[in-house]
Amino acid sequence: MPLPVYNEDEVDYSNRLIRDEMRYNKGALTDEHQELLQNLTDEQKAVYKKIMSAVITNSGGFFFLYGFGGTGKTFIWRTLSAAIRSKGDIVLTVASSGIASLLLPGGRTSHSRFVIPLNINEDSTCNIKQGTPLANLIVKAKLIIWDEAPMMHKYCFEALDKTLRDIISYKDASKAELPFGGKTVVLGGDFRQILPVIPKGTRQDIVNATVNSSYLWPQCQLLTLTKNMRLQSNANDTHLEELRDFSNWILKVGDGSIGSSIDGIDKVLIPNDLLINEYTDPIASIVESIYPDFITNCNDPEYLQQRAILAPTLDMVESINQSDHTYSALEHVGVPVMLLRNIDQSAGLCNGTRLIVTKLGNQVIEAKVLSGQMVGRKSDK
């Protein structure tokens, strides 16, 4: 039977998702791409050329960019995104956590972008139907970048693989045999860091849940970065050697070459007022008179989730009622805090976002974002 003819150059501007992904300033991205490209190291350029070759030839490919913190993975994501978007094409940038997605240009969480089920198993697929705006967006995408991949269960990647094969093979049946339907997909991360969380799982359960235990891994091309870019500074930096020693120590801990191999649980005592004592500009004698519900409900997870309370680290939240002090960490302007709920991702306000308190009102807390693309931006919540 005759096959339908598709014009791949046509853009469905009635699709809001596609319009949003093509709304970037091409001229500004072209300049940014040239600047980023000049600052790539030889090691990073090799990775960049390898991935861009697969994108330009439309040959597809499954890559994993492996490198410890500071080797420039995020820098490569920015360079690839600028290169593709400056030509009017679409690149989907996702991360395994909300806070990591804020570091990516146009980033989203992987569950949000690909509608991955929360309770996932080996038979799960993404909740994306043929012909929907999201399905058409994925078909148009030239590249998919997934950062912090090692912390996700392998079933998440396998669900996306099965979904993409189904969606893309609708137009080209030969794509059904290729990983991710022949789409160019790049994962990134460091296996020394957090691996998938398996409730009551053993070491073997955790290792078996990682992406390198998936049926997709034999078809993956491994790319590596080994040069720590954070140590590239002037020779006169008196702290450079200290930073280098600390970086090497962290790598040895991750490799298991130092430290004890005995698994166990230990308790680390952190003074509640460790940060509070650094500040001497209180705007109220006691916070209890301003935020009484925080003191009485700080150990209630449901209350914190409903109110999206700004609080210090969870350990400090849990210990407030156990301490001898009658204050909260929100008593001073300038105290670092953490947001405990997704409020507005486009404004950089999601679970795990670090902020610093700049003003305390009777009903409103003003804080400045400390990380991500929205760094320095103030928000009233």
From TrEMBL:
Provide the DNA helicase Pif1-like DEAD-box helicase domain boundaries: 40-260
Q: Name what cofactor the protein needs.
A: Mg(2+)
List the catalysed reactions: ATP + H2O = ADP + phosphate + H(+)
Could you tell me the keywords of this UniProt record?
A: ATP-binding, DNA damage, DNA recombination, DNA repair, Helicase, Hydrolase, Nucleotide-binding
Any idea of its EC number?
5.6.2.3
InterPro entries assigned: DNA_helicase_pif1-like_DEAD, P-loop_NTPase, Pif1-like_2B_dom
Keyword Nucleotide-binding in annotation = yes
Pfam families recorded:
PIF1 (PF05970), Pif1_2B_dom (PF21530)
Residues forming the DNA helicase Pif1-like 2B domain are 332-360
The enzyme's main class, written as a single word, is isomerase
Does DNA damage count among this protein's keywords? Answer: yes
Per the record, the similarity remark reads: Belongs to the helicase family.
Task: Output the PANTHER family linked to this UniProt entry.
Answer: ATP-DEPENDENT DNA HELICASE, PTHR10492
Q: What is this protein called?
A: ATP-dependent DNA helicase
Source organism:
Solanum tuberosum
